[in-house]
Amino acid sequence: MDVITSWTGARADALRQALRMTNEAFAERLGVAVRTVAYWRARSGSVPQPAMQEALDTALSQAPELARAQFWLILAERERGPVAPLPPLAAATRWHTDREPACCSSHPEPSGPPGEEGTLVVPVAAIRLVTPGDLARVRSMRAHLKAIDNAHGGDAALPMAVTYLRAEILPLLNAHRRDPAARSLIEATAEYEHDVGWMAYDAGKEDVAERYFAIALRRAEAVENRLLAGRILAAMSHQAIHLGRFRRGIELAQGARSVTASIATPRAVAMEAAMEACAHAAAGDSRQCHRALDEAAHAVPLITVSGEPDPEWLDFDEGGFWGHAARAYRDLGELGQAEASARKAVTLCLPGHGRTRAQRYTIRATAHLRMGDLDAAVSAAEHVVSEAWNLHSGHVFGEVAQLADAIATFKTPVASDFLAQADQLLAARGRLPDRPRAR
């Protein structure tokens, strides 16, 4: 839930800007005179009356997800001032991290003044006490940005997420190194940076993703949050598999299980075992893959009956299990199992998770293609293209391009129709295919 302890003229105007409303439209929305909205803009330190504070609370809570995220960004920039760059990090964690990745040139993070790892150097005058409202705001912003990432892809969420991290979160963290309540802030920051890593990964910025995963893992280590460390190691395993580092992917997945061995809830066991299964499948080890899949399958039903609470960021469910199983079966060449698992995963996909739905349809399309069923493959691939129009996801666009290249080898009207759809999407996203475009 979004928390504003006290509205001011500046904060009210930030909400107007985030909603992309004129003074007149915002006044009508709140039921006030236009001159009141103009007064807020002119007198940033003014404090609206209690009734108007409630009206602004309601307007913020009812705003679309993207507008709420934009509101916090505008507010952070206004109240914190110019944002300093994030300094590079050097130390590696003891928990199975990769080498410290270099800063990726496609994601602007120039070197800055030295300070605590992963934090900004903040002038003494900017330091203030952290409050429960600060923690609630950080976690609320994380939830908003995660929802945008799920629905619209990493390229949509990443710029906003990095801006808010630098402007709002890291200055707070730097100012409260010795605060007894710093543990909660460090955990919230690690959760946020873990998500930023996923966004960068989905955007195709692999070095940036590695860097944020490593930062998040070090913070989890610092506060001895082993469950969060396991979640981050699983994310790093996923990326390692994508990059073709299969042995590394296995080590990271097993590291996640080792770190959480005595504390893992059924949800954590299912997630980590499923990730290990994917790593073994990518390496071609059928026996170990099936062993890990069986362990995950045994844990999934216990998620709802165990009664053990899980943190919000541990978001693995039955659909996630079938999605991981589908990927593992595909990589093992067990195509019937891959298609059936992907079909179940699509059915269980959560609303607002367009990228996940596209990726699960991709597995279905790939399985059908390898089994020689072009019509079924094209039907699934068309779902991928349909979902991709709502996304800014380098990974999904790459999957569309791969499907198009594979389907292009079939010289049939069905194949040509799909290629026309895929090429239209890829051209609109600036990803023209190497082969001649379909007409």
Can you offer a commentary on this structure?
The chain starts with 8 loop residues before the first helix and ends in an 11-residue tail after the last helix. By secondary structure, the protein is mainly alpha-helical. It has helices at residues 9-18, 23-30, 34-42, 50-62, 65-80, 132-152, 154-175, 182-202, 206-222, 226-242, 246-259, 266-282, 286-299, 302-305, 318-332, 335-347, 354-370, 374-388, 394-407, 413-428. Among the domains are: 1-63, Orthogonal Bundle (434 Repressor (Amino-terminal Domain)); 64-224, no CATH class.
Strand and helix map with partners:
Layout: H1 9-18, H2 23-30, H3 34-42, H4 50-62, H5 65-80, H6 132-152, H7 154-175, H8 182-202, H9 206-222, H10 226-242, H11 246-259, H12 266-282, H13 286-299, H14 302-305, H15 318-332, H16 335-347, H17 354-370, H18 374-388, H19 394-407, H20 413-428
Helix pairs in contact: 1-3, 1-5, 2-3, 5-6, 5-7, 6-7, 6-8, 7-8, 8-9, 8-10, 9-10, 10-11, 10-12, 11-12, 12-13, 12-15, 13-15, 15-16, 15-17, 16-17, 17-18, 17-19, 18-19, 18-20, 19-20
SSE pattern, N- to C-terminal: HHHHHHHHHHHHHHHHHHHH
Instruction: Give the overall form.
Output: globular
Please mark out the parts with pLDDT under 50 across 5 or more consecutive residues, or reply none.
80-127
Termini separation: 49 Å
Strand content: under 5%
DSSP, total strands = 0
Oligomer: single chain
Radius of gyration: 23 Å
Largest sheet: none
Helix content: 55-70%
Figure out the total of helices. Answer: 20
Instruction: Average the pLDDT over all residues and give the rounded result.
Output: 85
Strand pairing plus helix content: what structural class?
mainly alpha
